[in-house]
Amino acid sequence: MDRYASLQDWIARQFPGITFTLSPASVDASFRRYFRVTFPDSTLIAMDAPPAQEDCRPFVRVAALMAEAKVHVPKVLAHDLARGFLLLSDLGATTYLAALNPGNADQLFGDAIDALIRWQLASREGVLPAYDKTSLKRELDLFPEWYLDRHLGIKLSSLQRESLEKIFSLILASNLAQPKVYVHRDFMPRNLMVSNPNPGVLDFQDAVFGPIGYDVASLFKDAFLSWEEERVLDWTVRYWEKAKRAGLPVDADFGVFYRDVEWMGLQRHIKVLGIFARICHRDNKSGYVEDAPRFLDYVRVVARRYAALAPLLRLLDQFQDREPAVGHTF
Question: Of the candidates 59, 89, 119, which is a domain's last residue?
Fold first, then answer.
């Protein structure tokens, strides 16, 4: 019996005698699949996470932590961890990514900021895996391996590699100097649902304990949607002001905090370029790498702003003729 049939059979045993249909609910960059289970009078979400590639236990654990923090996440209604099946409450079908526009962005991002602060306020050291130097560096190394080498076909010279390593060391030093909180790790519009209470939060199974600026950078400098810098700056100020009032350990100087967010975003954007290339070439999912130009633009903007990052800008300029154009920005 294939996994789809096994999932159908497992759901049927949870609801004897009740008819239902399954339809795809979302596309995921991992090996997980999500289906909407439609009953005569309600819907649920079924997750299929093949145990050889995915582990459902972190999802269940982090869902409980986020619910305790008063963050709106799916309820885990049933699970078979050995087979990688979960049944979840349905938070709806409208993502922030689909709903956001210049007119409603302040309200939707305001709700997301409030949810993020509740999540960060719940932080306790030793509960979630540490987002430490080893983890952050391993992610940065995806960029030369997968994006430059495998995707663009660029073999770095020893001097170029040395320059990149020095840049990575600067980025990591900035990242690791930040105060630590719970980090969702993909707190972006595609993983936020328009719901009541708003937002519903998804895709949190990779949560860690790490730099406070990470989720802020993820929210406002998204993989699939770009905003003018003035609006990003305004939303970041709103987060910072609320975080200060809530007692979170943000720097008292907004300029310092914003620099920390930008350098944290730099780590994320360099990493994601490598991840998207890996998804394309290893997993045969080509759609994600089409958004690489957006991330390159994020990286270039930050590299232009800080003198210490000038070598990164020079390195990217050497490869510019192989880069596609940047997509739409609101």
Answer: 89
Q: Looking at residue 183, what DSSP letter applies?
A: E
Q: Is 141 exposed, middle or buried (0-12, 13-18, 19+ CB in 10 A)?
A: middle
Q: Dihedral, CA atoms, 221, 225, 229, 231, nearest 10 degrees?
A: -100
Is residue 52 within 8 A of residue 83, CB to CB? The reply is no
| CA 310, 311, 317, 319 torsion-angle sign | negative
pLDDT in the model for residue 287: 76
Using CA atoms, how far residue 143 sits from 63, 137, 266, 277, in Å, is 30, 11, 12, 8
The pLDDT score that the predictor gives to residue 326 is 45
User: CA–CA separation, 4 vs 7, rounded Å?
Assistant: 5
Same domain, 256 and 165: yes
Which residues on neighbouring strands pair with residue 47, listed in sequence order? 34, 86
Residue 32 and residue 108 in one domain: no
Query: Over the stretch 213-233, which tens digit does the pLDDT of each residue have?
Result: 999 999 999 888 889 999 999
Domain presence at residue 24: yes
Rounded distance between C-alpha atoms, residue 50 and residue 52, angstroms = 6
> Of 41, 63, 57, whose CA–CA distance to 200 is shortest?
63
With bands split at pLDDT 50, 70 and 90, how would you rate the model's confidence at 325? very low
User: What does each C-alpha distance from 56 to 70, 73, 74, 151, 191 come to in angstroms?
Assistant: 21, 15, 14, 31, 17
Domain boundaries, position 183: 96-322
- Strands, DSSP E only, in the chain? 21-26, 33-38, 43-48, 76-80, 85-89, 180-183, 192-193, 200-201, 208-211
In a domain, 205, yes or no: yes
Of 260, 234, 76, which Cα lies nearest the Cα of 181?
A: 260
pLDDT, tens only, 251-307: 999 999 999 999 999 999 999 999 999 988 888 887 778 888 888 999 999 999 999
pLDDT tens profile 274-284: 999 998 888 88
